[in-house]
Each structure stands twice: as C-alpha cells, then as structure tokens.
C-alpha cells in the first residue's frame, strides 16, 4: 500500500489525515454492539408479513377470519387498514404499502400480523386465505416496454438518450458486443429490522436500520396520515447497507401495527425474507459498438442499454441516467450515441446498489476496450491510455471534468506492480482449494486490467445537502464538543470522520457523536459516496461558526456554544431530455484494477490470485478507512465477477439464501496492493473525492478480463459460472 501523507490543519491527535480508533469499533469486535435486530421493549409484540407467492396475479379475496382467532394475535391488517396514502417510493409513488387488487412480484406484502411471539405470528399468517388469479408475468427487459402494461403509462420507467458529435461517423476498426449483468444482492449481514413504539397522542417513534432517515419519515407519515412531526425516527445499529436500505422495507408495517394495537412492535426479517424485502442491483443487457482509427484512438461509441427495474420504480430513473452518462467510461470520445432504458417487469424490484448504474456499463465498455485492443494488436493497457480522460476532458454530456482525472496514471500504477509468483503447488491456493479438485493439472493463469468512472453525490439538479449541529461546552474543566446529524452510519465510518473534522477545526480532542435522528434537519442518504463530502462539509461549516464564537477561548465557563447549519455542494442541472447534454454531476471518481487469476479449465473453477488497485481519493481523511473501502468495494466486484447472482425463473427467485446465493469470504479475497492518490479536488471540502463506489466498478471487468486471458473464451456475462468455462 502506498499513501501520500496528508497535511494536518491542527496539531490535535485524531484529526484529519490520521486513522483514529472507531468509537464503535471495540463493541463490534467484541460482539457487543447493539444492532437493530437486538432492539427490545418490555411490552413489545412481534410483527410478520404475509407475502405473495406469485410474481403477477390479481387478488380476488383475502380472508383473515381464522388468523384473528389464533391465541396471542393482536391484529391482522390489510390495505384497508392503511389510514393514509397506500403508495410510496423514492422517486415515483408507485408501490403499495400493502397490495390492493394486484401483486406485481413474488414477495409483495399483502397482509400483516401482530402477535405476542414470532412463532404465533407465523402460525396466524398461515391461516390467512388469499385467493389469486395468476397472470402471465412480464420478465424480459428487452421487450417489456411493448408488453402488458404493469402500471398506468406502460412499462418504460425512463429513457435517457445522449447525443454528442456526429451520429453517422465511420471508423477503421469496429468491434461490437452484447453483454449481460446478473442481478446482484447487497447481501448485508444485518437483516431488515426495527422497533415501532406508539405514543399516547397518536404519534410514533421508530428505531430503524436505514440509509435515509428523513425520506423514510416522509413516506411513513404519508402512509399513516400523520404530520411529519408525529413520526420520529432514530437510527439503530446498521449491519451493512450498500443501497439496499435506501427504500422502505418494514418501516410502515411496524408503525401500522404499533398504532393499531397500542403496543411496541418489533419486526425482523429472516434471511429468505430479506431477499424479498429489499431492492437489488439492476440486471442489464447492453449492446455496444466501438469504432477507432488504426492508432487506437476512439472515433465513436454507440450503445443501447436495458436495465430491469423490476416491479416498482425505486431509483431506476437515476440508475438509468448514471448508466447513460457514464456509459463510455473514462475515455475521450468525440462522437457518442447512447440510449438507456429502464423498464418495469414482474421480476424483483431493483434500485440502489454500490456503483449504481456505472457497474453495469463498466463491465460492458471495459470488455469492449479489451476486444478493441485485440483487434488493433495493442495491449489492453496501451489502448486505454491512448484514450484516457484527463483534467479538462469533456464528458458525453458536454460537462467538463474540472478536477484531477488521472486515468493513465492509475493504469500505469497497477501495470507496474510486481506480478505474483507462478501457480502454487499448495492445494489451498489453487482453484477448488481443499476440496482437492486439482494439484495444478488443467490450471491456467491470466492477467486482466480495467478502469472505471463514477459520479459522486446526487445529480441532475437534486437539492443535495446535509445539516450539522456542533455544540461546545466545558466538561471537567476542558472544552468538549458534540456533533449531531441525521446522516446514517451504516458501517462506513462516518462517526469517526465527523470526530476527526471537529478535532481538526476546533482543536478539541473530546468529541461525542450524538445519535442520528430526525430531531435535526435532513442529512441526506448514505449513498452515492456522498456522506464524507456533504455531511463532512456541513460539520466543517458548523465548526467554522462555532470557532468564530469561541474567538480563541479555551474556557467558556457555563456558556454553551451551539451552531446548526446546512451545507450544499455546487449545483448540478438536469440533462436535456433529447440530447443528454448538461452538467449533471458534482464530481467524478476513478479507480483501476489489475487482476491475476488461476482457472481450472476442466472444472470451470476460478481463484483470484491477486487484485491490485489504484484510486484517486482527493485526500485521505482517514487513510485506514480509505483502504478498507477500496478492499470492500473490490470484494463486491469480485462477487459479481464469479459468484453472486439472484437467479430468477418466470419472475420467481430460485436462491433466496446464503446457501445458494454465494458471497466472497475471507478465503476468496486475494492479497491487494493498493495505491491511494491524493489529487485534491479544489471544489470539495479538504479536496476529498468519494471513495466507496469506484473500486466496485473496475474490479469486476478486470477479473473477467483475466479469466478471458487465461481461457481464450469471450465471456460476455457476469457472474462467470463454471459452465461458461467448460461448455457443459
């Protein structure tokens, strides 16, 4: 690992540029940290959800009579018990709290049960009789727009066209391809869970594992028919998120049961229900055509993309826009034609997941760059460097990249790293491991490269801001600070970063992070690699106000200095709906990977031997956390490359368990040599650049490129399965 030292703005220990101990670290390591699934109330009951077994069906009747007779049952609720608006959604309010007359995906909530014990709730749930008229599901994303309309207005959620330069230019060398990306799950280890506590005045408190407290609150209040101030949310311990907690799951359901019964209600999904209870990464089909001259310079890129949003919109409009605007990759191309389509189907709903549209496009355009290199007789690195974006380059949207874009430098860094030693004779380090499938016979090695681009923060004119409160008082004769935001800590380390910022800006070592809740203004979503940028900016701005009032004092007596402020990054704008032109994004992040793999060509087994990365982070506020983010993002990219996929048939999920949905373990992750560049963005607080998502984008295509190099196979779909390598 190579880290450029960051200059401190304060002599206080634990400030910016260092890696202090996380305030939640010891508890998590000891297994004592309280996650949302650990919530408890002495008088609580348990909630359970009855879900549709069908991807698409009309509901002809619901009979709850026998369920209500089960001893210990307090309530059985259906859509008629929703007192407010029975529709919610992040961008489009198209998803019912409880299904009314139709279900659009397997697992859609139909009824709720509240009972004195979770087993009682399950027994009662089995006594609810729902009659369905089963319909033929719409499952093909490429034809969905012309299929049976699943929503008023049809099945097209959004079409994003981008037109730049000539639309009919020709080139000397042309390569085409069709690529597929499977449906990946966020696979967070902490299941959806929460506790709703009713108050005597008809209001409700919800303790919840989520990514966006205020948007949750707004949707819950509308469904409950309550003013927003009567719905109070407090963040509980979150066991991972990665986009899967940005949408509602059981939030409204728990509150409905609590208000209906007058008792606290706890809901916790088991692993199977979790697969049905949250959105996933959009599967995609992508058609690409790249044209270049004989020197390898790109002349044009043309692409048509289809992204399957599943039954409800969630964040599909934004995912489609990201796939489109980032669809040619970190390369300079004068002539671009993009058509990206997001559609409704009866497959599981899809929404935010780390990489958010850029992952799907990245696999396709990087596969194309390898194909182009082969057609030109160039190395994969050289063809990328020939076309690499730099500061001042123009995106297909017409937006100028006005901060560092070290694409060529990142590629050279990973290319120049020493390669690992030859194929091992230790079976633990071979494909198949201790299953003893090979001792090296039939094992071939390959090396692959990829680079990716990701937008940072929210885009297209969204009012993206965060609110922070910093309070300073005297404690035991010394200044102490407390920081309060509604920005969700989901495991990424925001609690540590906020402490570091306050220490650096105020020179105060004792900093307490208060619980995140809705008693303070919006902190925005913990997504889009935005929280250190936006909430960090808000904390920094609040500290500046406090510092001005401190005026150098180290003893303020009984005075409490308390400042609250909102902070916004520079504005973006919607892209033109016909040409896709516009300054859509705040900032761009770049990462490159080199993967080395060993492949057992007889059994189709793959071992990733090394996965080296170089990434520009602007400035490493917490170097250890930065490296952790790069490692974690790369692990999820590895999962998509060779193992992770929710498999569906006719809209039904075939593998809703960690037995059949495979995720990388510590034994699957190879050693990583990581170069962290700190090329400051002049527009960002401390010069930072979002870290969490870029490594997920380039790791997947790098691994697949290495498998191609080892086997000579085309491999146009991820994840790569054994049968793709053996032809069986």
From TrEMBL:
Pfam families on file: Ald_Xan_dh_C (PF01315), MoCoBD_1 (PF02738), MoCoBD_2 (PF20256)
One annotated GO molecular function: oxidoreductase activity
Domain of life: Bacteria
Location of the region described as Disordered in the Swiss-Prot/TrEMBL record: 1-24
Domain called Aldehyde oxidase/xanthine dehydrogenase a/b hammerhead: residue spans: 30-136
Protein's name in the database: Xanthine dehydrogenase, molybdenum binding subunit apoprotein
Species, as recorded: Lentzea albida
């Amino acid at each position: 690992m190579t880290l450029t030292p960051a200059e401190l703005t304060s002599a206080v220990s634990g400030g910016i540029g260092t890696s202090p101990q996380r305030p939640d670290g010891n508890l998590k390591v000891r297994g004592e940290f309280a996650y949302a699934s650990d919530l408890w109330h002495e008088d609580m009951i348990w909630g359970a959800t009855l879900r549709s077994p069908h991807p698409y069906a009309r509901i002809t009747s619901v009979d709850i009579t026998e369920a209500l007779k089960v001893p210990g049952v307090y309530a059985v609720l259906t859509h008629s018990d929703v007192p407010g608006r029975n529709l919610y959604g992040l961008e489009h309010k198209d998803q019912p709290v409880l299904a009314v007359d139709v279900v659009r995906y397997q697992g859609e909530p139909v009824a709720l049960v509240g009972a004195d014990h979770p087993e009682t709730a399950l027994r009662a749930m089995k006594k609810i009789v729902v009659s369905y008229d089963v319909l033929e599901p719409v499952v093909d994303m490429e034809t969905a727009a012309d299929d049976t309309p699943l929503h008023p207005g049809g099945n097209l959620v959004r079409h994003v066209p981008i037109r730049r330069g000539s639309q009919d230019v020709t080139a000397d060398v042309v390569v085409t391809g069709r690529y597929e990306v499977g449906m990946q799950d966020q696979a967070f280890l902490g299941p959806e869970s929460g506790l709703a506590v009713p108050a005597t005045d008809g209001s409700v408190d919800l303790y919840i594992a989520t990514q966006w407290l205020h948007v949750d609150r707004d949707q819950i209040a509308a469904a409950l028919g309550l003013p927003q101030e009567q719905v109070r949310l407090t963040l509980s311990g979150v066991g991972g998120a990665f986009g899967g907690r940005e949408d509602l799951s059981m939030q409204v359901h728990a509150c409905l049961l609590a208000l209906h019964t007058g008792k606290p209600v706890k809901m916790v999904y088991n692993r199977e229900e979790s697969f049905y209870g949250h959105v996933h990464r959009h599967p995609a089909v992508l058609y690409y055509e790249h044209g270049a001259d004989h020197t390898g310079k790109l002349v044009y890129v043309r692409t048509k993309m289809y992204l399957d949003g599943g039954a409800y919109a969630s964040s599909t409009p934004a995912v489609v826009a990201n796939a489109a605007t980032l669809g040619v990759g970190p390369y300079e191309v004068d002539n671009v034609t993009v058509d990206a389509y997001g559609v409704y189907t009866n497959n599981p709903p899809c929404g935010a997941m780390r990489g958010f549209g850029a992952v799907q496009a990245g696999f396709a355009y990087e596969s194309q760059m390898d194909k182009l290199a082969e057609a030109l007789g160039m190395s994969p690195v050289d063809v990328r460097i020939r076309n690499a974006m730099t500061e001042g380059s123009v995106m297909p949207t017409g937006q100028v990249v006005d901060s560092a874009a070290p694409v060529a430098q990142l590629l050279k860094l990973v290319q120049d790293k020493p390669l690992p030693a030859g194929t091992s004779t230790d079976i633990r380090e071979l494909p198949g491991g201790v299953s003893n499938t090979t001792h090296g016979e039939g094992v071939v090695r390959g090396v692959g490269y990829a680079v990716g681009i990701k937008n940072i923060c929210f885009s297209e004119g969204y009012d993206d801001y965060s609110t922070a409160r910093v309070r300073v008082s005297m404690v035991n004769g010394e200044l102490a600070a407390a920081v309060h935001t509604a920005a969700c800590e989901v495991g990424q380390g925001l609690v540590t970063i906020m402490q570091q910022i306050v220490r650096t800006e105020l020179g105060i070592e004792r900093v307490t992070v208060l619980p995140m809740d809705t008693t303070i203004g919006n902190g925005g979503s913990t997504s889009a690699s935005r929280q250190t940028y936006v909430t960090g900016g808000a904390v920094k701005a609040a500290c500046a106000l406090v510092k001005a009032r401190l005026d150098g004092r180290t003893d303020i007596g009984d005075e409490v200095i308390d400042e609250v402020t909102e902070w916004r990054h520079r504005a973006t704008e919607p892209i033109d709906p016909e040409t896709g032109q516009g300054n859509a994004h705040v900032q761009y992040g770049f990462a490159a990977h080199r993967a080395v793999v060993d492949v057992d060509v007889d059994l189709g087994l793959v071992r990733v031997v090394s996965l080296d990365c170089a990434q520009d982070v602007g400035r490493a506020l917490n170097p250890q956390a930065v490296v952790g983010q790069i490692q974690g993002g790369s692990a999820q990219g590895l999962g998509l490359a060779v193992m992770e996929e929710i498999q569906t048939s006719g809209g039904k999920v075939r593998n809703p368990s960690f037995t059949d949905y495979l995720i990388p373990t510590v034994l699957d992750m190879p050693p990583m040599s990581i170069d962290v560049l700190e090329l400051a963005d002049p527009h960002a607080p401390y010069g930072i650049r979002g870290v969490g998502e870029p490594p997920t984008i380039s790791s997947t295509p790098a691994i697949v490129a290495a498998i191609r190099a080892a086997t000579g196979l085309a491999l146009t779909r991820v994840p790569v399965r054994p049968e793709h390598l053996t032809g069986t």
